[in-house]
Amino acid sequence: MKIAILGTGYVGLSTGVCLSQIGHQVTCLDINEQKIVQLRKGISPIYEPGLDDLLTMNMAAGKLKFTTSQPEALANAEIIIVAVGTPQGDDGAADLSYLVQASKDISSYINHDTIIVIKSTVPVGTNDFIKKLIEDYCGFPVKMVSNPEFLRQGSAIDDTLKADRIIIGSENEEAASKIQKMYRPLNVEVIITSTKSAEMIKYASNAFLATKISYINEIANLCEAVGADVQDVARGMGKDKRIGEEFLYAGIGYGGSCFPKDVKALLHTAGVNGVKFPLLKETIAINDFQREVLVAKVLKRFGGLKGKKIAMLGLAFKPETDDMREAPSIPIAAALTKYGAEVVAYDPVATDNARKIIGDSIKYAGSIDEAVHEADAVLIVTEWKEVKSIDVAEMLAKMKEPIIFDGRNCFPEETIRACGSVEYYPIGKPAIII
Ligand SMILES: NC(=O)c1ccc[n+]([C@@H]2O[C@H](COP(=O)([O-])OP(=O)(O)OC[C@H]3O[C@@H](n4cnc5c(N)ncnc54)[C@H](O)[C@@H]3O)[C@@H](O)[C@H]2O)c1
Ligand SMILES: O=c1ccn([C@@H]2O[C@H](COP(=O)(O)OP(=O)(O)O[C@H]3O[C@H](CO)[C@@H](O)[C@H](O)[C@H]3O)[C@@H](O)[C@H]2O)c(=O)[nH]1
Prior knowledge:
Elements: E1 2-6, H1 10-21, E2 25-29, H2 33-40, H3 51-60, E3 64-67, H4 70-74, E4 79-82, H5 97-107, E5 115-118, H6 126-138, E6 143-146, H7 156-161, E7 166-169, H8 173-183, E8 190-193, H9 195-226, H10 230-238, H11 259-272, H12 278-290, H13 293-302, E9 309-313, H14 329-338, E10 342-346, H15 351-358, E11 363-364, H16 368-372, E12 377-380, H17 385-388, H18 392-398, E13 403-406, H19 413-417, E14 423-425, E15 432-433
Parallel strand pairs: 1-2, 1-4, 2-3, 4-5, 5-6, 7-8, 9-10, 9-12, 10-11, 12-13, 13-14
Antiparallel strand pairs: 14-15
Helix pairs in contact: 1-3, 5-6, 9-11, 9-12, 11-12
The protein binds nicotinamide-adenine-dinucleotide and uridine-5'-diphosphate-glucose.
Uridine-5'-diphosphate-glucose (UPG) binds next to helix 9 and helix 11.
């Protein structure tokens, strides 16, 4: 099938690459010229494991193209997939301005048979609103499908090619069936529903996962207070199939481009529809609190931070991505520098993006060794494989003081105890001080 994708961000690019991989003819359109210039050379503007190989392979096979030209991408497309950003607006609601512009862009190029697929995460009712907007522009009825995306950054390709489910929301049977056919080579379970239910499934899923994280973080805080171990508790809980093992990792709160904004957008939708949803308010409040837990531990240990060198390992909001949107490292770096610490951070891939947000208030190291050299303490902020596989004893030997604040519970107790002299402050577990 001939497919156009609007937006070559984390979702649009991963989707484009995967749809070309399963045999479709895909043209990706973006308004960001720099991205398109890079992509045309076969260089991905984002770090996403497995993406680069599929990108170059499908470009070479002539199945995947990149352009900034609307007519080139849209004029002959059977299916147009919209994957532009829907960031958080000032009032907590999703900002639909990119989507509205993209819809206007589409209107001039579609015909009666074109199917418009909204993959961006949008509040309930948006597909209906966009349908009307486009119809007002083009003057004939259009076929709309809501097809929310569930991929995670860092595993976007696998999540797309081996998705748990595909949601197709449409009031147009023919359009729903064509989109089902588009995905058929993936052999993934498809759920066909109304556009409103499809839109709600996306927010309900993200808010549920965020709430699960806030729940385990509160359990972690309680574990610390009573002397239990949240990792053992999570393991014990997760073995119950009704609870499940995933998303029970306590830490420094959820970040990223989705959970923070989507929970707030769902709360906004609830509010305007007269539903109070206090659970979501608590999910957000617990997460805000959790983002401060690591710095509170550092302050408690040191008192003031003037003249202290603190190493931060990890900047990205999660491992295997270069994305810094809503990364816990941002408020942590700000708080440490506010209290007078000299902060030296290391991240395997997110340093350039971090520098654009955090700026020169902290230093950026080229290696873990450089970051921890003569440090008074190290903070584990992102659980990169490179960080988890550190020789902890060797790292401690390079530091001024052997003190670790681990926001991601990366190291087993035996590893820490084998280090000799050490102070280890994890999340939701007793500290180890030898
Ligand atoms: N990032 C994720 O992991 C993820 C997962 C599932 C769903 N989502 C949702 O998918 C959507 C996209 O997220 P993202 O992280 O890929 O965003 P992103 O910011 O990485 O990319 C959006 C892209 O759209 C482009 N764009 C904006 N207006 C355009 C237009 N009129 N025509 C063509 N291109 C245009 C931008 O230049 C940018 O490259 C959001 O609604 C998000 O909530 C994201
Ligand atoms: O047990 C856990 C799991 C995750 N996190 C944190 O939660 C955030 C989000 O992690 P993850 O869900 O793995 O990454 P995203 O790429 O943000 O993916 C989420 O957001 C996407 C955008 O909507 C959805 O498509 C995905 O299904 C959904 O998992 C990160 O800060 C993680 O550190 C935890 O603290 N504990």
